[in-house]
Amino acid sequence: MRVKDVMSAQIVTVSPNDTAQSAARLMLETEVGALPVEVPGVGAIVGIITDRDIVASVLAQGLSTSTAIAEFMTVSPEVCNEGDDTATIAARMRHFGVRRLVVVNDDRRVVGIVSLVDLPAEKPAQEAVQ
User: Fold this and answer.
1) In what residue span(s) does the CBS domain sit (predicted)?
2) Which end of the chain is more exposed for a tag (fewer CB within 10 A), N or C?
3) Strand-pair partners of 9
4) Is the backbone of residue 118 left (phi > 0), alpha (psi -120 to 50) or beta?
5) pLDDT tens readout for residues 98-120
6) Residue 89, Cα to own-chain centre: how many angstroms?
7) Domains, the chain, ranges and CATH?
8) What whole-number distance in Å separates Cα of residue 7 and Cα of residue 3?
9) How far apart (Å, rounded) are the C-alpha atoms in residues 70 and 87?
10) Is 99 left (phi over 0), alpha (psi -120 to 50) or beta?
11) Model-level pTM?
12) DSSP letter, residue 56
């Protein structure tokens, strides 16, 4: 199975200069928990933010909701291609300890996000018959 078969198609991104509050509003409006951070006009993915990042890195630290996303985003996030095999991607996610990957096409443009919950569960190996 390929990533494009299970990913959440998402073309909503934020800029590094957007604020925590504007990102939180966008997450609420689009019902997502993560947003890729993209350089406007260039299309390069430079980071990712999650709803947890806003809570833990902005609110819990007493920072203003007008804090720029560049101040708390995860820089240079792992990405995958929409044609990648889901089993390979699941292994990469485990290796890097992440729950989401930004999905890009062959032109390196964002086409979605794949989450661990989107991936098919691995089938347990059959036990040897004695």
Assistant:
1) 7-65, 73-129
2) C
3) 112
4) alpha
5) 989 999 888 878 889 999 998 88
6) 13
7) 3-118 (3.10.580.10)
8) 6
9) 32
10) alpha
11) 0.81
12) I
